[in-house]
Design brief:
The chain is mostly helical. Helix content is about 55%, strand content about 0%. It contains 5 helices and no strands. The longest helix is centred in the middle third of the chain and has 16 residues, at about 25-40. The radius of gyration is 13 Å and the shape is globular.
């Protein structure tokens, strides 16, 4: 049995789908946390939580905000997470 814990906005797409997931969801959380630390905002934030979940599931991560403040290597690191 899998359990879901943590802040809702940090759930990986596979967690939102309700299926099985692996420790890869932890890398998702690290990437989101790093993005938020560098930009000051969650990459999929929306006041409407169901809409935020939709944005997470679409997964279109806009890295343009951070391309101006960190190196290309840093951007690629976040993309890889």
């Amino acid at each position: 049995m899998l359990t879901v814990t943590g802040a809702p906005l940090y759930r990986a797409p596979e967690m939102l789908e309700g299926g099985a997931y692996s420790c890869k969801v932890d890398m998702w959380d690290v990437g989101l946390s790093l993005y938020e630390a560098l930009t000051g905002i969650h990459p999929f934030f929306d006041q409407n939580l169901p809409r935020a979940f939709e944005l997470i599931q679409i997964g279109n991560l806009d890295l343009e905000k951070i391309e101006k403040i960190i190196s290309p290597i840093g951007v690629e690191f976040i993309r890889s997470l």
